[in-house]
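[SOLVED] Need 3D model of a two-part complex

Original post:
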Amino acid sequence: MSEYAMTSKIIDKAIPRIDALEKVTGHAVYTSDIDLPNMLYGKILRSPYPHARIKKIRTERAERLPGVKAVVIGREFPYLFGETLKDKPALAIDKVRYVGEPVAAVAAVDERVAEEALSLIEVEYEPLPYVLDPIEAMNRDAPILHEGLAEYKRSPIVKVFPGTNICNYVVYEKGDIEKGFAESDYIFEDTFKAPAIAHAAIEPYVTIAQVNFDGRITLWTTNDSPYRLQVGLAESLNIDPSNIHVIVPYMGGSFGGKGGVKLEAIAIALARKVVGYPVKIELTREEVFTSTCTSHSSIVTVKTGVKKDGTIVARYVKAIYDAGAYAEKGPTVLIQGCRGAAGPYRIPHVKIEGYLSYTNKIPGDAYRGYGFFQTQFAVESQMDDIARKLGLDPLEFRLKNLIKEGDINPLGQEVVSCGLEKCLLKVAESIGWGRKEGKYVGKGIAIGFKNTKTPSSSAVIVRLNWDASLEVYTSLVEEGQGSKHILAKIAANELGIPLNKVKVITSDTDITPWDTSTTSSRTVFHQGNALIDACRKVIEQIKDRLAEKFNIQRSEIMFKDGEFIIGKDRISLHRDINRVLRTGEQIVGHGFYEPKISAKLWEHHGIFWMYVAHGVEVEVDPETGIVVVKKAVIAQDVGKAMDKATLELQLIGGTIQGIGNTLYEELKFDKYGKIENPNFRDYHIPTALDISEVIPIIVEQPHPEGPYGAKGVGEGPLVTIHAAIANAIYDAIGVRFKEFPITPEKIALTIKNMRIS
Amino acid sequence: MSEYAMTSKIIDKAIPRIDALEKVTGHAVYTSDIDLPNMLYGKILRSPYPHARIKKIRTERAERLPGVKAVVIGREFPYLFGETLKDKPALAIDKVRYVGEPVAAVAAVDERVAEEALSLIEVEYEPLPYVLDPIEAMNRDAPILHEGLAEYKRSPIVKVFPGTNICNYVVYEKGDIEKGFAESDYIFEDTFKAPAIAHAAIEPYVTIAQVNFDGRITLWTTNDSPYRLQVGLAESLNIDPSNIHVIVPYMGGSFGGKGGVKLEAIAIALARKVVGYPVKIELTREEVFTSTCTSHSSIVTVKTGVKKDGTIVARYVKAIYDAGAYAEKGPTVLIQGCRGAAGPYRIPHVKIEGYLSYTNKIPGDAYRGYGFFQTQFAVESQMDDIARKLGLDPLEFRLKNLIKEGDINPLGQEVVSCGLEKCLLKVAESIGWGRKEGKYVGKGIAIGFKNTKTPSSSAVIVRLNWDASLEVYTSLVEEGQGSKHILAKIAANELGIPLNKVKVITSDTDITPWDTSTTSSRTVFHQGNALIDACRKVIEQIKDRLAEKFNIQRSEIMFKDGEFIIGKDRISLHRDINRVLRTGEQIVGHGFYEPKISAKLWEHHGIFWMYVAHGVEVEVDPETGIVVVKKAVIAQDVGKAMDKATLELQLIGGTIQGIGNTLYEELKFDKYGKIENPNFRDYHIPTALDISEVIPIIVEQPHPEGPYGAKGVGEGPLVTIHAAIANAIYDAIGVRFKEFPITPEKIALTIKNMRIS
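Solution:
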């Protein structure tokens, strides 16, 4: 490491993002912008029933409509998709399982014709009993969504109970939970609920599929993980991964929703019927809301045993996550959510149980924080209650129990790179913790953590050209988070070249190398490491050439701050590369990174954990119930700030998203499980008018394996804000809300009832 | 080499070309097929004068036309382009130099509007004296085309004479030419002419240029050399090469015409005025004929001294090539043509002089064979005459003097890998040399050679995926010649994987590595070597992994026929790669090749020479003058046949092209230098109806440095056919034509005059 020590001059510099100009001018290309010659347009017919058998589908009239090039139904494309549990057809085959499920699809010369063709498809349904509540769905007499559950292909980490709707069960234990409760002075038990939330990315789902004459599939698509999509499709379609070419242009937000196999499967089903022609499907906003995925609604019960002095002795958590009609990433969202369910505390006795249950609704799926915000909301709301009931200051209570460097976390992993205490203290200071600001004004704090999926791997290829320009080839998906910019900075920093000499080429599986996914806050950590490896391989090759040129030993050459040092001579890579490379000569480095952690430990471990604290000050209008977040502070331990502006925007953005979750957002289902508010008029996300001050605080506790010490960032800001707001509302009006969104109606009604009683 | 010895099973197999299916079904993408969002369309205003000063250009009316987005004139884009002599503006600046020269360009929302806008541009010209004949142009009192010749940037290999129209002069000498003539028994001197020929590629010139906000230029274009274009533009525009991104889709033929900087400069000039918007220019067929380039018309005088016994003692050649109005590749075409001007013979005393002269006509440029066919036509026509005058059989006369392995060629290079004699003997046998087939039926033979540009370099990157599929990244341009297929075969052969596992990704400077050019018959030789290097680097990396996995020495592992051999174990790369690589793991190899030949020798040498012989049998109708080529045989020494079918098509195609050159093709200029036959009705290229039997014979004299012994192929078939036909016509009717095309009119008139006289 020492030989390569860089001053990280570029890393610490405020430089406009490399994608800024093309984005603000509207010239960045998104999937929706892509027009291909002879392109056809796809539309999807959807189920009006929450659960029904498909008796017959007649497509002849649709097929005869001029301009229609293909109609496809589920029986013609009998493949099942899913990441760890393959349960989802592209188009319903024997039955439909939620209102909005795709049943048939049409490709036509334009969208209008395709839309018209949908109305000509006749489907005969036989309605079936259905279930919308995940607890009811676990009853023995509940309607069963997946009779074939036992036969579905699944990963060994998924435990299903055939004959029920339970499509994953997980249990984590540490210590002896019964002993722990027996040793406790007090035991608290509360149940908390979170609703289904829409990802609400501004860009809808768009896929273009083209099937070549040799069967090879090309996809241009809104998906956060080109290679995982490639591998997932290959598994389901039973073809070689290399027969699927995935291209992901810029993406307008994902927040977890644009992973797995979504529109891609339907687009392929159509494209296979019109070989050679690209088929584009772009969902309407209503379709995005009603037929893609949501966060997992949840019921989380937390039972905590504490000593009188405030020492936490035992914690049992039971988490029930509503899968909706198909598993999607639910099984691993449950696993991850449960891994965080005890909160970031030193607790000797822990037991966590999680259930994932099918219901006849739109599927739940990954959502920023991957199952953590549901459990952190529960734990951190209860922590406040416990403190108050014990007569302790919630801040002191947390400080007393939180994990620090070298501790063992609730799952048994040693804590490494943990700035949690610092985060909490900074937040408390920033919001003036303990100072009462007025009647109906309250303050709340909450802390949390989130690990990254482990293990996972990334490769990056770099190409240094003879004019000292550099291409970085990476399969990261730039969806607004800024990783593309940060990789460019790392490359510039490693080689000592100006940032404007670096081009980052992203996400085309024919060109850019393997990367597991742009999820789990993993990109800068994993790809950053792979990129540094790639850059150093370039440097080593240049050293070989210099050694040959000057007839010296390789070991006589040092590289530092962009310069090769040979005795008293200094050769700048940037300025003098043409002394080494002739016109046309390029040096290629292929870097790879995978955490150096033993497979045995993966189950309970993450190669890094993000630590975060939120503090908020709210004012509640007791008449209208309207909550104003007057100030929100977030402090997050990021290991090393790789780009301060980008980082702060992540912290602010996540906080605002969480404010929306907590106060406004909820997908409302009618009695058939149909979403009643599928648009931005009826589904309210925060606008600039809703938001007051949000203060980001960066804490840097370097990670020993991170690039320059950096850890991931993206999901951290969304795991603690919900509880912080609920705690502040409690502080303001003395009411504990155990369910969000905490809407004005609920608050006003509660206050009214309190006054009456 | 031995360790890697492959059985070349795939190389010798007849397998359909990997690009066959997409081409025959019309799904291969050419530049013309590309539509981009917000694309504008460009049209070009052209000079009606052969030589005139531009006094004023008024563009206001054009600019005001609704739908017009940009109008550009030469003064706004004052850069000069050219490969070794930068003399050509994108749009004429101070004066125009030929009829058809671009003067202004318009970008508009569609082609119709752009066309209309052209009619609104007013240009005031002051006509100047002009010159069309290259010999007249070299006179002291000739109108001077380029007053600034001395100031143009040029390569040191170009010798210009400021104040004249001579834009290159070259002289090669070996031995003592005066002594040689003095020692000769007979001296023959003849002058031969070749016309300007159209490249006649079926695809016209198309360029799309887009300038990004940071000034970076992206080009999708019909150009044979993406990197040379990048470097050439960068030199002229004075920007970094990496700020120019060149993409070349499939190309529908080039034959040398689609190199250098053509439409690209004009498209950039427009695109810089509409930053962010792609501008597409697609030439009409008439524009292709009148304003791009042609072959060099030439006047070649050959003076040969021989002994009575037929030993050639001395040869002096003076070649005058007509540059047209701009140099384009003329300076190096002259150099190459002169390098071959003495023919493939052992001659002790040689002197060659070449002149390149500007005239007020469309520029001459590279044309398949790069200046060789003009000199080979001259030498091989005269060889026949000399033989007959000495009473020798033309075959015997050639066999007596031709170069063989180990000889010294006319330029002083030792002859390596030369199957010339075998080619000649096979051709003679195939056409039944010496057997008279009837009155007005004649036979002709000719031999020739062509070197490849030396030095030049190629890189290839390969990526082996965990499913044993392979990407080959190469900057070759697939213009119909089949190199893409041959590279795929080489990769499959090296790694022992099926051909359908290999994808070849071509010509995108952001992705594919450096390659000098897809010209000079160099691709299979140079890129083939680079590809083999890249594949072997992959194998070495797999060996590293195997050595680590099995805890053995790397040297204990052999790779042969697609299998790693470890003791008695055999691990197939194709079937067992997943024992080495996990999901997502890829291995990248970067290969490079540059001839191992000393710089001192470059001037007179080629790393390889192609050797070729043609034999034809013609029948002449003495009344109409119509010549029917009853049979044409070509034998070419290719080193090693890399794909028999592709190779035979190259030999047949080049022969047919040469038949067209010799019998039909000629661009006709009116007295203003305007082309009178700018379309396929008036400019006749051979059709299927014109062609009888063409027999390709492959001779394999392995080249020590070639991939599996292979040499290049593409230009060989066009250097000897012209003389073979002329010799056959002489054999049929006893008339020596020293100028082609040898049209029915010329023959009929000549026969008529003979009868009269």
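Edit: Chain B is about 25% helix and 25% strand.
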